[in-house]
Amino acid sequence: EVQLVESGGGVVQPGGSLRLSCAGSGFTFSTWWLGWARQAPGKEMEWVSGISPGASTPHYSDVVKGRFIISRNNANNTVSLQMTRVTPEDTAKYYCVADFHPWWRNDAAPRSRGQGTQVTVSS
Q1: Which of 9, 88, 107, 118 has the most CB atoms around it within 10 Å of its CB?
Q2: Separation of first and last alpha carbons in the chain
Q3: Closest by alpha carbon to 70, among 20, 15, 119?
Q4: DSSP letter string over 40-94?
């Protein structure tokens, strides 16, 4: 059974930084595409970032490009999202997601998703 467990959420001031982490288990971590999605209150789920199995190719939505950095460590089955220069519009529940393919290219939902971690940007 695929399990994805997020950590690192919290309250951060506008302009600040926060690092989210996700630990994966129950699947061959190094062969799956991984990423992050988020959902703000009253809004649909939004893809944020994705990374290829070999970590050679990160991808970002236009909204976070240049501010967020995704990385993965296949040796310890983790994927992280370094968030910088956050704004109140980044407030959302952030989910670690995984799939065999880069699901966002087809505007599809990812195969697996964690329980999420809340990020609140507020002064």
Answers
A1: 9
A2: 40
A3: 20
A4: -TTS--EEEEEE-TTS--EEE-TTTTTTEEEEEETTTTEEEEEE-S--GGG-EEE
Distance CA 54, CA 42 (A): 35
Which candidate, 1, 6, 85, places its Cα nearest to that of 38? 6
Q: Which amino acid is at 85?
A: R
Two tokens at 110? Answer: 């990812």
- 3 state DSSP class of 115: coil
| Alpha carbon 53 to its chain's center | 14
